[in-house]
Design goal:
Length: about 120
């Protein structure tokens, strides 16, 4: 019967199956996390802690104190914000262009200084 040899890559994969989880648990322990609990949450397993519920959040929409703005007011605010962002973008573009021009000017001065020497 022929003896099967395991390739180096297969050995690496089998070693990684054991090394990676141990490294993860070690890293979470060092960072102050609860490694097994985090691992269970990632895998979707049941955990001992119950999910927390925010007590400040109202359960029913009628209990909310702030009312949403009407759609037309929201649209106006969005347009104002977009205009401000566009203006800021244009200012940054102009500044960028001025800096590029200054770089070109300084490079020419540098080339002229090195050719004189």
């Amino acid at each position: 019967m022929a003896k099967l040899k395991m390739t180096g890559f297969a050995r690496l994969l089998i070693a990684m199956i054991f090394i990676v989880p141990v490294a993860y648990l070690g890293a979470t322990f060092i960072n102050g996390g609860e490694g097994l609990e985090d691992l269970k949450e990632m895998l979707g397993m049941e955990t001992a802690t119950a999910p927390t519920i925010e007590e400040d959040a109202p359960l029913f929409p009628a209990e909310r104190t702030e009312k949403p703005a009407p759609p037309m007011e929201k649209a106006g605010q969005d347009e104002e914000v977009m205009d401000e962002l566009r203006d800021k973008l244009n200012e940054m573009y102009d500044e960028n262009s001025a800096l590029k021009d200054e770089i070109v000017k300084l490079r020419k001065q540098l080339e002229a200084a090195t050719q004189d020497n």
